[in-house]
Amino acid sequence: MTATTAAPAPTWMSMARSRFVVEIREFVRSREQMVFIFAFPMMLLLLFGSVFGDQVISGDVTFAQYFLPGMIASGILNTGFQSLAMSIAIDRDEDILKRVYATPLPATAFFAAKIAQVIAVTVVQLAILIAIGVVLYDAQLPDGAEGWWIFTWVFLLGTAASTTLGIAMSSLLRNAKAGSAVVTPIVLILQFTSGVFLVYTQIPVFLQHFAAVFPLKWLAQGMRSVFLPESFEAAEASGSWQHPATAIVLALWVIVGLVLAVRTFRWTRHDDN
């Protein structure tokens, strides 16, 4: 008789990779998510660029050029916070999370796959927005290695803060139906007060102070420092890009989101005993 060789046990990496493939397939099959993540920001950029694009904000910076960094920052928040919170809430309502929890898949591998899916989708989304901004509105790409480095750390810290807060928010939603009603107003308020839809310095000062508490304002400001000319720095509310403050605030929100996610996440529905 020929001895049979047992198949090697799957590694953490292989399980995370397999789950990542599942997450990507589910995203591609969801037309609503595809439209929200890709088509909606593109339409907003084209709409605002067409209506207000030629208006000069400061120096030679037009509104279309100013709007692009805000949409990039908003795209990071939308994918990592809004879309992730709602998709996890749906998975919980449909008992998908309960079934995943009952499998040998480690929780860390599951969340690693979720975060990898968010990063992959966000990269594609930002590439599309940047291409539109450069081709149609003469937006400038990051200047040299330093510019790309700033873009990278702002992107990574912003994505980390958005995803951890999205995971935490998913457990605060009583059910998936409440997701849109709860999460969408939060995102809209932050967009209107953080320099995404409106020029930040034209927002009332008390709303500027309100926005400065949350990560989107710093994300948008960090992206402006990358995509707008250096001369625009003086037009910022503080007269500076505030890179150290941006890194500190985003890092603090990563910690807050991580603590909340660990303490509040649940695999089962709220009405389960």
UniProtKB/TrEMBL annotation:
Q: Which InterPro entries match?
A: ABC2_TM, ABC2_TM_bact-type, ABC_2_transport, Nod_factor_ABC_transporter
- Please name the GO terms of the biological process aspect recorded for this protein, alphabetically: response to antibiotic
Q: Which GO terms describe its molecular function?
A: ABC-type transporter activity
What residues does the ABC transmembrane type-2 domain cover? 32-268
Q: Transmembrane region positions?
A: 34-52, 64-90, 111-136, 148-169, 181-200, 245-265
GO CC entries:
ATP-binding cassette (ABC) transporter complex
Q: One Pfam family name from the record?
A: ABC2_membrane
Kindly give the membrane topology term recorded for this protein.
Multi-pass membrane protein
Q: Does the keyword Iron-sulfur apply?
A: no
**Cell compartments where the protein resides:** Cell membrane; Membrane
Q: Which UniProt keywords apply?
A: Antibiotic resistance, Cell membrane, Membrane, Transmembrane, Transmembrane helix, Transport
Q: Which family does it belong to?
A: Belongs to the ABC-2 integral membrane protein family.
Protein name as catalogued: Transport permease protein
